[in-house]
C-alpha cells in the first residue's frame, strides 16, 4: 500500500501549502489593518492557518517517513515545489482584495473539510474536524465584511466588486481534480473536489446577493498551482520567507 | 476625506465557563453587533478565556453617580440582620 | 465638572480625593478627580497605548522573515498581544473622556509620544530576540509596578496585560539562547543585537529620578508606585544574570556588583541620545509615524463603509 501513502502524502502537502501560503499573506497585514480590532482579527486567522499548515506538514512528514520536518517543507523548497492554489498566494491588495480572497478560500475550505471529516483516514478526519471549527469562523468574518463593503459606500462597493472580479479567474482551480484526488476520493480517503463546485457557487452567490454585488461572468480559469506552476508573486514571497534558512543553512533557530 | 471614525464603543462581558457570571472584560470598537461580538471574541478570548460573550453599546449602560453613593449604598450598611452571622444559633444545632 | 464650582468645595473634594488615594482606594471613571490627575493619566495611558501599537512595527518587520514555523507563530501571537494591549489601554484612556480618534490624531501630529525604544530599527533576526528579552523585560518591570496604580481601569488593564505578557520576555530570551548555542555567525548576531539594544532598554525607564519632570504628582496620587531608578535597577539585576547564563556580554565596562547596595552599578547613560530621539531625531521616528498614517488612511474607506452599512441597516430596521 505504499502507493496510497504516497497519495496521502501529496494530499497532505497540498493542504499544508494552501494554509502556509495564505497564512503568510495574512500575516503581512500585521500593523497594517484598517483599525486595531481588525488587525487582530486578521492575525487570528493567520494563526489558525499556521497551526493547520504545521499539522498537515507533520502528517506529510510521517507519511514520507524520511525524517524531514515541517520546517523543511515550509522553508526549503523552490517555487516549482509548492502545490498551493494560486488564489492563496495572490497579494493582499487593499482590504477588499483580502476579504474577497478570504471569502472564496474559506467557503471552499468549509465544504472541503466538511467532506474530509468523514475520511477513512483517521488523521485526515481528525484534522478536518478541528479545521472546520476555525473555517466556520473565517467564513462569518469574511462574509460579514463582504456584505458591509458591498452595501456600504459607493467606494467600498466598487472596491469589493473589483476585488471579486479580479480574483474570479483563480477560483476555478479550487475544484481542479487530478489523479491523486480521484484515487483518494474513490478510496473514501479524499474529497470529491468537483462535487464541491455547486455548493461553493450557491454559497458565494448568496453572500454576493446580500452584499448587492454581481457574480462575474464565467470566463477563463487559471490553474497550475497544484502542478507547481505559480504566479510571479510566489517567488518573491518565498525569497522573503526563506531568507534566513537559505542564508544560514547550518543554523537552527 | 470625512472626519475620522474609529467606530462605536462597546463594553464586553465574558463568562469564563458555564455556571459562572458574565464579568466585564473591557471594551472594543465596532460598527455593528456582529462585528462587536467577533471583535470581542478575537480580543478577549484568545487564550480560551470564554464560553459566552455579551457585548453592549457603551452608551446603553446606565451607571450610578458616585455623588449619589451615600444615598444609594450607605443605607444598606446598618441592615446587619440581612446577614446570617446576625443570628445566634443554639449550642449544638447543626447548620442546614 | 463645572468650572464655576466654588474654590472651597473644590478644596474639600481634593482633600477627600487625596485621602481616598492614600487609603489605597481605586479611583473609578465617574468619581470626582482633579483635572491634573485626569490629564496626567490621559497622557500616560495614551502614551502607553501608542507604545504598544507602534511597537508592532519593528517586530512586524520580521514576521515575513521569521526562520521557522514555530518562530513565526510565536512572533505573530506576540505582536497580536501587543495590539490587544494597545486596545486595552485605549479603552482605559477612553474612560477619562478622550476618544480613540483624538488619541490617534495626537499620535500622528506628534502631540502624544510613544516609547522611544521603537524609534530604533530591527536589523537582524537577533533584534527580535533582543526586543523580546530586553525591551519586554524592561516593560514588564514597569507594568508589574503599575498593576497597583490608583486609577481602576488602568490598573485592571495592567493586570490583564501582565498576565498575557509573561511569555513575551521568555520568547525573546529563548531566541537569544538558541542563537548563542548556534553557529559563530549566530552568536555574533546575538551579541551585536545585545550591544545595540542594551542602552536604549535602560533609557526606557526614563530620566534619573532627580531629572524626572512628571514624578511628584504621579507619586502623591499613586499613579506611579516606584521610581525610574528603582525600576531600572531591578531590571538590570535580573537581566545581567540571564545574560551570563547564555554567554552574552553586557556592553558596559563599568557594570559591577555593588556589595553595599546589593545591586549592580552601571555606567553613564547617554542622555543626549535619549533627548535627541525624543525630540524626533531617531532613526525611525518619521518612518513609524508615516507607517501608522498610511495604514490609518488606507483603512479610512473601510471604516466609512462599516459606518455607512450600519446607518443603512438602522433605516431598514425602522
Which features characterize this protein?
heterotrimer, B: 96 residues, alpha+beta, Ubiquitin-like (UB roll), 2 helices, 3 strands, C: 318 residues, mainly alpha, 67% helix, globular
Summarize the structure.
Chain B is α+β, with helices and mostly antiparallel strands. Helices cover 18% and strands 24% of the residues of chain B.
Topology:
The complex is a heterotrimer of chains A (253), B (96) and C (318).
Chain A: H1 2-27, H2 36-64, H3 70-75, H4 86-89, H5 95-116, H6 122-150, H7 154-168, H8 179-186, H9 196-210, H10 232-241, H11 243-247
Chain B: E1 8-15, E2 22-30, H1 33-44, E3 52-57, H2 69-73
Antiparallel strand pairs in B: 1-2, 1-3
Chain C: H1 7-23, H2 35-54, H3 56-60, H4 69-94, H5 100-108, H6 125-146, H7 152-180, H8 184-203, H9 215-220, H10 228-246, E1 256-258, E2 263-265, H11 271-278, H12 285-298, H13 300-316
Helix pairs in contact in C: 2-4, 4-7, 6-7, 6-8, 6-10
Approximate shape of chain C: globular
Please bin the fraction of helical residues of chain C.
Answer: 55-70%
pLDDT < 50 runs, ≥5 residues of chain C: none
Strand content of chain C: under 5%
**Helix and strand run of chain A:** HHHHHHHHHHH
Can you tell me about this structure?
The complex is a heterotrimer of chains A (253), B (96) and C (318). By secondary structure, chain A is mainly alpha-helical. Chain A has one domain (4-216, 226-247): Ferritin, core subunit, four-helix bundle (Ferritin, Up-down Bundle), CATH 1.20.1260.10. Chain A has helices at residues 2-27, 36-64, 70-75, 86-89, 95-116, 122-150, 154-168, 179-186, 196-210, 232-241, 243-247. In chain A, helix 2 runs antiparallel to helix 6 (122-150). Chain B has 96 residues and is α+β, with helices and mostly antiparallel strands. Chain B has a single domain, classed as Ubiquitin-like (UB roll) (Roll). Chain B contains two helices and three strands, in the order ββαβα. Chain B has helices at 33-44, 69-73, and strands spanning 8-15, 22-30, 52-57. In chain B, a hairpin with a 6-residue loop joins strand 1 (8-15) and strand 2 (22-30). The radius of gyration of chain B is 21 Å and the shape is elongated. Chain B starts with 7 loop residues before the first strand and ends in a 23-residue tail after the last helix. The mean pLDDT of chain B is 90. Chain C is an all-alpha fold. Chain C is built from 13 helices and two strands. Chain C has helices at residues 7-23, 35-54, 56-60, 69-94, 100-108, 125-146, 152-180, 184-203, 215-220, 228-246, 271-278, 285-298, 300-316, and strands at 256-258, 263-265. Chains in contact: A-B, A-C, B-C. Chains A and C meet through helix 1, helix 2, helix 3, helix 6 and helix 7 of A and helix 3, helix 4, helix 7, helix 12 and helix 13 of C.
